[in-house]
Input
Amino acid sequence: MFIRLTQEQQQIMIADIQYFFMEERGEDISEFAAERVLDFVKESLAPHIYNTAVKDAKHVAEQQWASLEEEILTLEQPIRR
Output
């Protein structure tokens, strides 16, 4: 999966990765190393997260459709015989 990020988004994420490594592990990693971590996340982890988000969106859409269907059915007029 290819994730397109703007240069600004990528720089923010790289800085966040560097901050994380410093705060959590006490390691001062280079911009290049942080970029490699970001590439790993984009290539290996992001597809799992993306697919979960797609499934969640599908579930929400199905719920909304069911609700809409119920509301439409309340508009039916009784037929007298």
DSSP finds two helices and no strands in the chain. The CA atoms of residues 4 and 10 lie 9 Å apart. The chain has a mean pLDDT of 94.
